[in-house]
Each structure stands twice: as structure tokens, then as C-alpha cells.
Amino acid sequence: MAKAEASVEELVGMIECGELRLLEMRRQYVWPSTPVRDLLDSLYRGYPSGAILLWETDEPVALQEFAVAQQRNPYQSTRLLLDGQQRLTSLSVVIRGEPVTVRGRRRPIELLFNLEHPDQLAFVTEVNEDANDDEDLIDDETDSTEDELQRWFDKMTFVVTTGKLAQLPHWVNVSEVFKTDEDAPFLSRAGIEKISDPRYTQYSQRPTRLRAVRKYMYRSVSGACRGSIRRVMRSGSSPRMDRSPNTSTSDRDATGSRPPSIAKSWPNGFRCGAKSRGLQPHGGTHPDGEIPLLA
Q1: Mean of the pLDDT values across residues 147-171?
Q2: Are 29 and 67 spatial neighbours (Cβ–Cβ below 8 Å)?
Q3: Cα–chain-centroid distance for residue 206?
């Protein structure tokens, strides 16, 4: 298997263009809004978010639809996402601002970003990858008064949208931030008209920092199989990333070198239908002359 790096932006683009698909046997998307919020918070702060596992095959395989809209796969081979579906689907929904299908119901995941969040973490939340319910408030919150809830929210960086918070100028819709590189709409909404306003730097720098989540680099472990994909599934363990004593959790491989970036192997950057595909840290091309083989 080959190791490479892929940015969130590239992976979301691969999902949108239909290049990245799901095996029928994998579980469907199940995350409610809360773990999506916590994942985004972790990436915003630069915390590690694990690896993803990809596999490429030219054999017909039974697929299931992603929980987000996709175009038709423009390539002859199929690239399968074996581990990372919950994370990448969540990021696709938030960055693209489109609804997601959860248990047969189509709904948006709407998060708010606090432009006045504390610099230091007031408390730590953990992403629960096995979340399967629609509860977005913990018990302490549901028993709190309105004033206590407001003080609680003021300490947070991201929250699941509420009507009251959405009306406050320092709480902005996360998907709206990703849709534009301009800060003017958020500054105007907060009544900031001059650079001399003490809030100007904070209100302009923090949306930029949030957009940088698109550049977060996931380590991707990739492989190709010109036979049955069942080879991957017969190993006796889940295709999720099982760590062994020989598996490093750092961002460097056994030689001390950083794994190559997908962006570097995409000379023209990612775009739908581009002939040059990423995830090619080692050589080889597909017989059709366009699709790189994965080492």
C-alpha cells in the first residue's frame, strides 16, 4: 500500500465529482450534528484527525450512494473509500452547504461559528464516531437556565444552529464562511466599518482561519487491486485503520520523510474530469493512459 496526503478540499472534490465511491457493505452515514461540530472544532485548532483508507479496483463492485449528492464517476476504475466516510461526508456537507441523507431523511447540518470565541479552550469535546442519535444537547445543558446556556455558548467556538444565536452578529453560519473568501459580509453584519474598530482584526482573521480547514492534510493509505476487492475484506479484520506496532502515528514514514502530497501529484490542481489524478506517490499508469495506478 502507498501512503500519500490529501487535503480536505481535494477529498471533498473527489466525492462531489463521483470519483470516490462507497462499497455496498459499508455502513451508511449516521452522524448527527454534534460530532460534526466537534470534528470541525478539532480541525480548526489543527488537532490530528486520523487517516483515511482508499482502494482502487477496475472490477465491477456493488456500491452504495454517498449521503451527499455526487456526479457520475468520470473514470473507468473505481476508487473506494474504506475508512473515513463519516468524517469526509460531514466535511462535504458543511463545506458545500448541501443537505445530507441520514436514515432516509434529507436534512441540512447547520453550524454556527463564534467570531468572539475565547482563545483558550474552556472545555474539551471528543468526536464520537459511533454516534447514532439526534441529541445535540448534553444533560447539563438541558437543565440550565437561559442565561446559563448563553454563558455556556459564549465559551464555545462552534455550536449547532439555534434561532436565537443565529440572530447575533458574532455568530455566523459555517457554510456561508466556506462559500466566500470575502469577509465584508460578516464585518458589515457586525457593524464594523473601519479598520480602527477594535473588533476588525478578530472578525477578519478568524473566518480566514476557518477556511484553512479546507487545506488540512489527511494521510491516505491507498492500494490498487486488479482482482477482486474481496481480497481487502478477507484479511480477517475490518478495513478500518487498525494500528499495529509497526504503524507510526506521526506524519513521517519509516524513512523519516513526509509522505507526498496529492496536490503535488496533481499538476493542475483538482478539478472534475481532470486527466491527472492524485494519490500517485509511486509510479505507474492505468492501461487507458490517463488513470495512475496506486502502488
Answers
A1: 91
A2: yes
A3: 19
Task: Examine the pLDDT at 46 and tell me if it is beyond 70.
Answer: yes
Provide the pLDDT for residue 9.
Answer: 97
pLDDT at 236 over 70: no
Query: Once rounded to an integer, what is the mean pLDDT over residues 89-114?
Result: 95
**Angstrom distance (rounded) from CA 157 to CA 206:** 11
Q: What are the CA-CA distances from residue 197 to residues 187, 190, 200 (Å)?
A: 10, 11, 5
Question: Could you give the CA distance from residue 265 to residue 273 in angstroms, rounded to a whole number?
Answer: 15
Phi, psi of 47 (to 5 degrees): -75, 150
pLDDT at position 42: 95
Cα 93 to chain center, whole Å? 9
The amino acid sitting at 195 is I
Mean pLDDT, residues 105-121 taken together: 92
Integer Cα distance of 26 and 88 in angstroms: 14
Is the per-residue pLDDT at 182 higher than 50? yes
Beta bridge partners of 236: none
Encode the chain in three state secondary structure.
CEEEEEEHHHHHHHHHCCCEEEECCCCCCCCCHHHHHHHHHHHHCCCCCCEEEEEEECCCCCEECCCCCCCCCCCCCEEEEEECHHHHHHHHHHHHCCCEEECCEEECCCEEEECCCCCCCCCCCCCCCCCCCCCCCCHHHHCCCHHHHHHHHHCCCEEECCHHHHCCCCEEEHHHHHHCCCCHHHHHHCCCCCCCCCCHHHHHHHHHHHHHHHHCEEEEEEEEECCCCHHHHCCCCCCCCCCCCCCCCCCCCCCCCCCCEHHHHCCCCCCCCCCCCCCCCCCCECCCCCCECCC
